[in-house]
């Protein structure tokens, strides 16, 4: 009950603080070949460790179109990591437009007082950093592309900051 009330409070706070989204341009052309995310290895709830991040099986990755710069296209795909070395998280960078705008699904395991969950959202790549819009649970999430092709993830939530390295799955 406490987590539910905190979630509603965070959502209300985020709604009050977030700037309205600019309308999306109809000129953005998604790639024509969406690709399904590979199935999870352990779908049986009894086989999934408690507190693990679980990504919805309907999440798809659309390969970047030809006009998407290579530095943006490098973010495309499913990424898995551990925040602070203990809590699993996943991010599916589903679409990327030529101007760096992205659609994503982010799933997390137990994170502070937050139970495992999933949120779909949008973000923007600037330089080597992908910054997501504030998630419904109040989390601010960003990923920086490292020279070795991994992502350094940062999640700020309820006054705490969690970091971890994410690898492409």
TrEMBL record:
This is Lipoprotein. It comes from the Bacteria. It comes from Mesorhizobium cantuariense. Residues 1-21 form the signal peptide. Keywords: Signal.
């Amino acid at each position: 009950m406490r987590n539910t009330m905190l979630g509603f409070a965070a959502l209300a706070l985020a709604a009050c603080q977030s700037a309205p989204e600019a309308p999306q341009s109809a000129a953005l052309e998604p790639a024509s070949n969406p690709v399904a995310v590979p199935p999870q290895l352990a779908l049986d709830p009894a086989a999934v460790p408690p507190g693990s991040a679980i990504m919805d099986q309907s999440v798809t990755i659309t390969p970047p179109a030809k006009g998407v710069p290579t530095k943006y296209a490098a973010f495309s795909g499913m990424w898995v990591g551990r925040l602070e070395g203990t809590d699993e998280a996943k991010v599916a960078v589903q679409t990327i437009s030529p101007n760096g705008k992205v659609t994503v699904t982010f799933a997390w395991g137990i994170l502070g007082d937050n139970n495992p969950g999933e949120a779909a959202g949008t973000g923007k790549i600037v330089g080597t950093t992908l910054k997501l819009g504030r998630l419904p649970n109040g989390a601010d999430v960003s990923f920086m592309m490292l020279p070795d092709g991994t992502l350094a993830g940062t999640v700020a939530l309820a006054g705490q900051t969690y970091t971890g390295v994410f690898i492409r799955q």
